[in-house]
């Protein structure tokens, strides 16, 4: 009987916690440098009026000063999901998928490079993430940012 009561309490508690999770941004950004705040607001602003899911074209990931995982929405807005906890399923995106136009470099033959220019249906949600900032610095600042919760190939 005691085991049943404990199991019931654990079940009710876990369901309550799961249902009570909110994606409300409760982070105090007051101490963040201006450039980190600008980056966070720029990312959030691009998601204010986008559908969920939305259609976007993959531009190719790359790593320069930071990691970029960019898409161009059908609405013409640039969306970068770099450094997020994205759920990409079994689609073979890589870290260096971008083409190398204008560079004296071999053709990019990574599996993800073949996805550049393809359209995808992106489902997204806000989740605790971070931005890496500023001016080439590698300081990490926690923030509630959009991440890919599910992605599928889009067929016209």
Secondary structure blueprint with pairings:
Layout: H1 2-20, H2 34-46, E1 54-58, E2 62-63, E3 67-68, E4 70-73, E5 78-80, E6 119-133, E7 139-153
Antiparallel strand pairs: 1-4, 1-6, 2-3, 4-5, 6-7
Task: Describe the fold and architecture.
With about 160 residues, this protein is of the alpha+beta class. The chain has one domain. Helices cover about 20% and strands about 30% of the residues. The protein is built from two helices and seven strands; from the N terminus they run H-H-E-E-E-E-E-E-E. It has helices at about 1-20, 35-45; strands spanning about 55-60, 60-65, 65-70, 70-75, 80, 120-135, 140-155. It has a five-stranded antiparallel sheet with strand order 5-4-1-6-7, covered by helices on one side. A hairpin with a 4-residue loop joins strand 4 (about 70-75) and strand 5 (about 80). It is globular and about 45 Å long.
The gist of it:
The chain is of the alpha+beta class and 156 residues long. Helix content is 21%, strand content 29%.
Features:
single chain, 156 residues, alpha+beta, five-stranded antiparallel β-sheet, two-stranded antiparallel sheet, 2 helices, 29% strand, globular
